[in-house]
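G., the chain you wanted modeled:
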Amino acid sequence: MSMTDPIADYLTRIRNGLRARQRYTDIPASRVKAELSKILVSAGYIKGVKFIDDDKQGLLRIYLKYGKDNEAAINGLKRISKPSLRVYVASNKIPRVLGGYGMAILSTSQGILPDSECRNRGIGGEVICEVW
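Predicted structure as tokens:
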């Protein structure tokens, strides 16, 4: 069976892993998911990511991050642009998630970038998701 929205599946697996207090979660690999994972690592929302070869498409092992009282580093993940409704924004209309405490991730002509980088470069694009 084919999957219609692999990015929503990626976000849901992370959300479920955090709620179950798992140390890591495995996700079918793709270039887009790898780029999203790199952005989440650099922003400090997850500990790390590791590619595992399985003679198919591979797996991304996402190491989840928790605080001192075992609270998750990610409080929420929301898919914005969906296959059924794409959401594009100009550089001056990039959303500020929780007044700047969260981040939006955009797909641009220069690759997948966090909202702050898009504002610095003055480019817009498709809003993939929001993380806080």
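The radius of gyration is 15 Å.

Shout if anything looks off.
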